[in-house]
Automatic annotation (TrEMBL):
Chain segments annotated as transmembrane: 12-33
NCBIfam families per record: PRK01371.1-4
Keywords: Membrane, Protein transport, Translocation, Transmembrane, Transmembrane helix, Transport
Domain of life: Bacteria
Protein name in the entry: Twin-arginine translocase TatA/TatE family subunit
Topology of the protein relative to the lipid bilayer: Single-pass membrane protein
Region (Disordered) location: 124-144
Subcellular location: Membrane
Major place of residence: membrane
Amino acid sequence: MAFVRLAADYPVGMFGLTFEKLLIIGVIAVFLLGPERLPHYAAQLGRLVRSLRDMATGAKDRMREEMGPDFDDLDWKKLDPRQYDPRRIIREALTDVDPFAEEQSAAPVVGRAAVNENSAYLQRKRKREALGAEEPAPFDSEAT
């Protein structure tokens, strides 16, 4: 029983493909390609993987070359897009607290937008309050 692993124990790759599924796809590909074309396609796959690795290494070297000594000091985990939480970003944008400040207060102060006294909402509210309880609301014949 110690050697038996459940499918949930295996890591899931891209598009939900597990190791078993990839192995089955590989076996089917071997049977479809046949022994005469298999070495050719295996060599092409090897060249593709090698060229992708060379491109990644070249991009890394070029970035190190252009950034200079700052490249080694850069914290790449801060730039990882998976760490961004939209709720946290909005919460920080709506607070007046500077996230990079040395000291932070215990309770963040929420910023308020300036009130526009001439807004349509406030004008309607003033008219409604001025009417009183007995008077009917104004009627607009051009309204839909």
